[in-house]
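Quick one, tokens below. Sequence please?
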């Protein structure tokens, strides 16, 4: 009897050893991590950009990448990384999110936002936000502190206030530049057809524990009707994350992204059809979205740290920073 017990405990010991060994191999192969961001897609042409403006965009994108990357590097979560990167882009007047958002037909800023945790499939979103300084924090709050996924307008803002988020006057979001182009567009009906829509921001990340997360924040589309909600706060359209596949953040003409469930479609192609990330992303953006007449792009990272950033517009502000590599920022097609 004692002999049998000894044998059993010995084999248990070896079993535990093998388990430990395997685990260290698994955590080694999972050690790739990184962050990908975007600052919107649209008619971004080299010919209409000054060197100064280009440098400003590049510096801000690099700052957001570096901030998110530092969090991942020190063992932080992908959620914290994308949250911090998006705050930097929301605070910058260069992008159509937070400060610098485009304006509705009535001349106000109305912001949409969402966030998703690929580990738990928990998600949070808010639409029609006019006074929360950093909408991405509200999306996170909805995800973590409410039983809901999406909240809108006054109710969402009351929830933000209750939870001590920083509130601002709507004029905080409205930059001189956006106001000028709004006024011009109101005067000239023709210009409305050539509306510049780029500038939404988003981030996706993979952390050291293999957890994926995605977030997107926007002012929506210039001259949108009051009450219009785009793809950004719609989980599965503008944002999606699933640890088994990938994390996606979209930018572009939101109505098309909603109709195609773009972000979720990319994940589903990987899940059900075993597509690679780049094949899935190209299928949805370059084929399906383009065939429907939609414009825009996405950024994505998969569970192995592969990155895809396809878009069918002239340009997309974008960048990635992966472990073992240098940060990489791009604006135009090439
Ligand atoms: N997708 C956003 C929307 O339709 C706009 C954008 O990405 O530029 O609200």
């Amino acid at each position: 009897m004692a002999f049998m017990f000894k044998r059993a405990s010995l084999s248990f010991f070896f079993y535990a050893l093998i388990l430990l060994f395997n685990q260290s191999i698994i955590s080694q192969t999972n050690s790739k991590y990184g962050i990908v961001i975007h600052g919107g897609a649209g008619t971004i042409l080299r010919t209409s950009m000054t060197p100064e403006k280009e440098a400003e965009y590049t510096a801000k994108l690099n700052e957001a990448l570096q901030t998110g990357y530092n969090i991942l590097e020190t063992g932080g979560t992908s959620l914290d990384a994308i949250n911090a990167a998006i705050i930097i882009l929301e605070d910058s007047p260069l992008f159509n999110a937070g400060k610098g958002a485009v304006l509705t037909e009535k001349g106000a800023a109305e912001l949409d936002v969402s966030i998703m945790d690929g580990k738990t499939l928990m998600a949070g979103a808010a639409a029609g936000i006019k006074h929360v300084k950093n909408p991405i924090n509200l999306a996170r709050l909805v995800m973590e502190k409410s039983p809901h996924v999406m909240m809108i307008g006054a109710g969402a803002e009351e929830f933000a206030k209750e939870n001590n988020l920083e509130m601002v006057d709507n004029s905080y979001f409205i930059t001189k530049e956006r106001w000028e182009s709004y006024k011009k567009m109101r005067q000239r009906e023709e210009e409305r057809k050539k509306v510049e829509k780029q500038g939404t921001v988003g981030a996706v990340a993979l952390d050291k524990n293999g957890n994926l997360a995605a977030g997107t924040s926007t002012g929506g589309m210039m001259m949108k009707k009051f009450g219009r909600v785009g793809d950004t706060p719609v989980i599965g359209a503008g944002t999606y994350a699933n640890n088994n596949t990938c994390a996606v953040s979209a930018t572009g003409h939101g109505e098309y992204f909603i109709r195609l469930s773009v972000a979720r479609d990319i994940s589903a192609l990987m899940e059900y059809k075993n597509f690679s990330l780049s094949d899935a992303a190209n299928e949805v953006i370059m084929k399906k979205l383009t065939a429907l007449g939609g414009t825009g792009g996405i950024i994505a990272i998969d569970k192995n740290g592969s990155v895809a950033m396809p878009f069918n517009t002239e340009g997309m502000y974008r960048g990635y920073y992966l472990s073992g590599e240098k940060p990489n920022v791009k604006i135009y097609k090439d």
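Confidence is low (pLDDT under 50) at residues 17-29. The CA atoms of residues 141 and 163 lie 8 Å apart.
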